[in-house]
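Box S2. Input/output pair 1.
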Amino acid sequence: MPSFQHGNSPALRGNAVNAQSLSSKSSADDFLKRNAAKYNLSNDLSGLDYVTTISTAAGSYVRYQQTVNGSPVFSKQLTATVDLDGHVSLVVSDYTPYNSVERAPDKLTKEQAETKAAAYINDKGKGKWGTTGNTFGYVIQNGKAIPVYKVVIHANEPFGAWEAIVHAGNGRLIEKKDLNQKATGSGQVFLPNPVESSGSAAGLADNNDADSPALNAQLKNVQLLGLDGTGKLAGQYVAINSKARTKSSDLTFNYTRSDNQFEDVMAYYHIDTLQRYIQSLGFANINNRSITANVNTYKQDNSFYSPTKKDLTFGSGGVDDAEDAGVIAHEYGHSIQDSQVPGFGNSLEGGSMGEGFGDYLGATYEDAVTGDGFGHACVAEWDSTSYSSSNPPCLRRLDEDKVYPRDVAGEVHADGEIWSQPLYELAGAIGRDAATKIILQSHWSLTPNATFNDGARAIKQADQQLNGGRNAKTIDAFFKARGLSTN
């Protein structure tokens, strides 16, 4: 008795797919040859190697790899989308033309390239590292095809998988890339500090790091982004170094302030958030790195940024400095300026601008979290409860109406209040995002010994660059009120 089978047999379906793939590749080849000039290709498609065809019920996708002398040009591919009628409906191309091919007569061995890559990734010789890939190919720069090795390394420090593109001749680093998948954790923080979030300093006391119902009531649950997955508070933009050695296998970091691990979470969350905010404004090249934050390693009531070590340190005297987001933001501000102008603040006025910018960054960050009511024009309300009797307590204010040169005290923190006020007023007038973008843009115009007037002119020029000078009159007025010139 004959058997009956509904639909195509597996063999028939396979043959149909293969036929579709072959037909699609033929259609893609013909189309690219006819339109070679449009895509900067050779008429015979030399320098473009076929990779694969993916066929689906809706159409096929033909992928090619750009090559030089038979070796891949890394990350340079071309895809052709072919519809069911055999027509190419879309071409997406990374193909990059070049005028010459650089030779490497003294070509490195693969082993030499791996050693170079490990050094560039900065494993510091701390234990084993191993490669998971080492491929010879090319990159194209300034119209020239350059011979390179692409080396993928698993390192111990910094932990994880990294890619280094190393020149195949002289061994110089051409590109380094972090390949690690980032993890998201969770934790508890003050947001931004318990005084501002509660709207009062009443009933809030440090009491040698003791917990209290009033302080615990101000804890907020947050996501900790960009973690490296090791269980430590280390990630894309900050790595915590502390006595507590905070670690969680499930990436949950819920502590109260009586536990030193709480300050670790505070520092990680707020620094990471600030860097992501800077990038949201369109700046991918301002302090875009994992900065070390030393927490509870310094017993004085002070915090600082080290321009030589490029790290942050938060003191534990009085209220622990890392319990206040305003202090964290202020110190991160110094790191930001140093990344834009190495050695910034070498003069009294330059140093004062550094302190003023840090206060601006802290105050506007606090305002953005809770609104600009209680704590308006004040920074670090919680940290300052141990030394300020004002209401609210303030480390410094941004509305003291100081005028240059009449109120110059010759001390950078005091004179920073001359600079912070027009910045803060600008944010009030045109919005935090617009003002911060102008201010950050202006830093690149400055030098280590820049003056207040240099800074004011740079801010007006940055507004011209970014906004066609739309805010010029507002900028003029705010700086003129402080005795500073924008002309």
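Box S3. Input/output pair 2.
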Amino acid sequence: MKLLTFRSGKELKTGVKTDKGVLPVPYSVDELLASEDARGKLTDFVNSKISGGADNLFLDEETLDLAPCVPNPGKIICVGLNYRKHAEESNMPIPEYPILFNKFNNSVSGHGDAVPLPHTSKQVDYEAELVIVIGKTAKRVTKEEALNYVYGYCAGNDLSARDLQFRTNQWLLGKSCDGFCPLGPYLVTADEVGNPNDLGIRAYVNGEIRQNSNTADMIFHCDEIVSYISEHMTLEPGDVILTGTPSGVIMGYPKEQQVWLKDGDEVTIEIDKLGRLTNRLVNQA
């Protein structure tokens, strides 16, 4: 099932993408992530409306103002240097353990949103990432059990201001600027995705492909990541985990070829089965 969140006036509403269009549903993403009962009711609701022939209930996705597909994440946990070639292009050693850092909710944005370029940075970069969305409380779960705690997946862009990121030994400043965590367009349930470590992942800038890899190249796979994090902190429904980016980021280019993101640039993240997430960078007002 493909869920999306859209803006309706000052409210956020949830929809399900179907062959007939987007069906608005009476459950928020937060409710669906937190409640098995709501998930069952959602399936029944969608099936009844599709079979009921009420085509006037379905909306044209192109007319919707999409919000982040997970509009209120709890923890936003990110994994750094999780593709071997990306670690190599960054001139950093292959990590022995997952490198974890975080973003905050101010960084969350949706498909189609304009993302402001911070006035304090001149080196803004893109990072295509598979995002894990937790659906059950996970504490000290094994690698074998880990994916049972995942509700679904979405595409993400770990936008990064490199000059701020490496100003100190802590990466936080360059990772948590406003709008720097686009999520979407869809939250796709785990049963529809299948194996998360066999998905093509790509990034485009103004239509030019920059990253082209597969999640199979992760150093630490999705089950390992969920299990590892759960050993140290409890994961709750609605927590999201950005699992790292493949090679091809601007930072990995030779210095004379580094052209950082600028006003008007359009970045698209594309992951098999999860759709295309597009955002335009704009100068900060």
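Caption for Box S3: The mean pLDDT is 96. The radius of gyration is 18 Å.
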